[in-house]
Amino acid sequence: MEVVLNSKFYVTTPIYYVNDKPHIGHAYTTIISDTLARYHSLCGDEVFFLTGTDEHGQKIEQSAKKNNENPSEYVDKVASKFKDMWDSFNISYDKFIRTSEVEHKNSVKNAFIKMFNKGDIYKGEYEGNYCISCESFVMNAILCPDCGKELVKLKEESYFFKLSAYEDRLLKFYDENPNFILPTYRKKEVINFIKNGLEDLSITRTSFKWGVEIPNEVAQMSDKEHVVYVWLDALMNYLSALGYENNLESKMEFFPPDIQLVGKDILKFHAIYWPAFLMSLDLPLPKHIAAHGWWTKDGAKMSKSIGNVVNPSEVVSEFGLDVFRYFLLREVPFGQDGDFSQRAIVERSNADLSNVLGNLLNRLLGMGEKYFDNNLDSLSFASAYEVELKEVEDSINIAREYIFKVELHNYLESIWRIFDLANLTITKKEPWKLIKENKYNEVAELLVFISNTLIKGAYMLYPCMPASAKKILSVFSLGDDGFGRFVVNKEILTSVKLNHIPPLFPRLEVKEEIKQEIKSEAKLEPLSIENVIDRDYFMNIDIKVGTIIEVEVLPKSEKLLKLRVDLGETRPRQIIAGIKLYYEPQELIGMQVCVLANLKPAKLMGEISEGMILAVKDDSGLSVITPHKVAQNGSKIS
Ligand code: MSP
User: Fold this and answer.
1) What is the enclosing helix (H) or strand (E) of 441?
2) Which residues lie below 8 Å from residue 546, measured CB to CB, with a gap of 6+?
3) Is ligand 1 within 6 A of the CB of residue 99?
4) Which residue numbers does the motif 'HIGH' region cover (predicted)?
């Protein structure tokens, strides 16, 4: 992917519903955004980091009622819980927006008028179902396809946005901007949603009151009181926060957003509705929408009724903010689901933070004090460690590429390569033996090298774990302003004075009740599963059953056969398969096979291949995978 450093960087979190207090899912999005904001600040970009609360809609109105409060008092109370939490977590946001602010409401109204004047809004009636929990209109279903909750029936006057008119422009945009949706494998579900037919979107509601009233200019002819649909209202926050069409000081030079973090459940709203609204307003589209996966707790979905909702403040008070941040960013590949448990956080912290990073720092401080009274000097270290220093720079470069894809797990893993290399180098050099042989110069070289790995590593770590990185840098009397020197300009130090700090990441103990859990699980031998993927990822892999209807021998190839496979589509697929050594063409005709159907077509021996036949190969040869019973051509394997 192209690595572009902007001079301006605009990053957003979703704005959180104030129907309940913040939980780990909210903390996750916010911490990822904070990491990106901090990284870009270090790079010298001018950053605008936006977060806030989504305070209108039927769900909030109902929650207020349940709490016997009026909506406005209720939202004030809950919004402050979010703001207080982010403040106590030192989140570096530039603005905390609340959709109940008058400036935001003005932006929404003015945008509504613009869309209306453009001819993109018309009056009609919505008749269908609605999910109050997701605040989303759902046709033809009894339960919400996203959250599984029961739907309510709606029949009400409504203004509609001509979403269907934007179908082609949206598809063209995704095509021309293949990295718009991150991870890119999520693009397919968005495209499928559109290809199934985009209906016009109901954008006002009349059966409750708690929302932005539609402007008089538009509502003149209406006999009902309309409030703006909460998703149109909410999405506009990314504009209103910058002073779009309101009285705030304009910061529209930050628009469009560089990256917008969302959970996978709200990708549709951000990758379809939001770009269509922006097209209607003649505004540029965001550069990336990055969708993360969902957290479960001890393997179960979090829910208030089960009482297993993880409170981020409790985790932070037990393990510390940076351990929590590290866990969230490192534990799951960006985009995939993750499971939170006390045990997972303890294991992750002990394995990476205590055993690798903490241990490295302790080794340096221990040897530095013992052998050199904390004063390390070596002019020759850079030539002695030329290869290792190159490895460090390589890891840094690799890590920096990952940040642009929001692959923060890989970013951290690349930084850990630096710390692993440093630990390994100490083990290999055996400085305790060198000292006995009076080879002080060699040990000084080693320790200056280690110091430089820690300095560079700490600057890279700073966006993810700011407080810990600062502590590491304080060992070398450095502040948090050296990213340019040590990372961008690749500076190294040849002389270091070590300051001692208390051990950074003491090993954590697994609590008694967790030990019990481990015991009860002990019967199942743990398996090490490589390259784990989640369900959603697998759902994007399209394997279908098909029947081979024609086989052609390619005379120039020893291994390849040209097949025509009926997958129940408008025409059979042409598939070039490397099975010639194992099958006679005749025995293949009529055979049902499993085909990887959404593999990018490629040319093999000059022939286009539109899929891959699945087969297994062992010592006895190759065997094509075939369903146990005959299946309809085109049936999906899941
Ligand atoms: N208000 C809307 C967003 C409007 S943005 C214009 C909303 N709010 S929310 O509070 O319900 O969710 C906010 C974010 O939290 C979403 O990105 C959602 O994916 C995320 N999470 C909620 N529960 C989660 C987990 N269990 N795990 C990870 N993130 C999840 O949607």
Assistant:
1) helix 440-461
2) 565, 566, 567, 568, 573, 592, 593, 595, 633, 634
3) no
4) 16-26
User: Sign of dihedral through CA atoms 224, 75, 104, 202?
Assistant: negative
Closest alpha carbon to 623 in 594, 590, 597: 594
The DSSP symbol for 490 reads: -
Q: What sign does the CA torsion over 113, 115, 120, 121 have?
A: negative
Q: What's the CA gap between 103 and 87, in Å, rounded?
A: 23
Looking from the CA of residue 264, the nearest atom of ligand 1 is: 19
**Which tens digit of pLDDT belongs to each residue from 491-528?**
999 999 999 999 999 999 877 665 665 555 555 566 77
17 in contact with ligand 1, CB cutoff 6 A = yes
How do residues 293-318 score in pLDDT, each as one tens digit?
A: 999 998 888 887 778 899 999 999 99
Does the annotation place 594 within a ligand binding site? no
Task: Determine if ligand 1 sits within 6 Å of the CB of residue 25.
Answer: yes
Cα Rg for the chain, rounded, in angstroms?
Answer: 29
pTM greater than 0.85 (yes/no) = no
Q: Which domains does the chain have, with CATH numbers?
A: 340-497 (1.10.730.10), 535-637 (2.40.50.140)
Question: Ligand 1 center to residue 48 CA distance, Å?
Answer: 21
In angstroms, rounded to a whole number, what is the distance separating the alpha carbons of residues 511 and 513? 6
Peptide bond into 71 cis (omega under 30): no
Which tokens hold the place of 411?
A: 């970013």
**Residue corresponding to tokens 């990372």:** 487
Please give the backbone phi and psi of residue 518, each rounded to the nearest 5 degrees, phi first. Answer: -65, -40
Give residue 467 CA to ligand 1 midpoint distance, Å. Answer: 27
The answer to whether the CB of 235 is under 6 A from ligand 1 is yes
Residue-level pLDDT at 116: 96
Tokens of 82: 């979010």
* Cα 13 to middle of ligand 1, angstroms: 9
The answer to whether the annotation marks 134 as part of a ligand binding site is yes
Phi first, then psi, for residue 201 (nearest 5°) are: -105, 130
Nearest CA to ligand 1 atom 16: 263
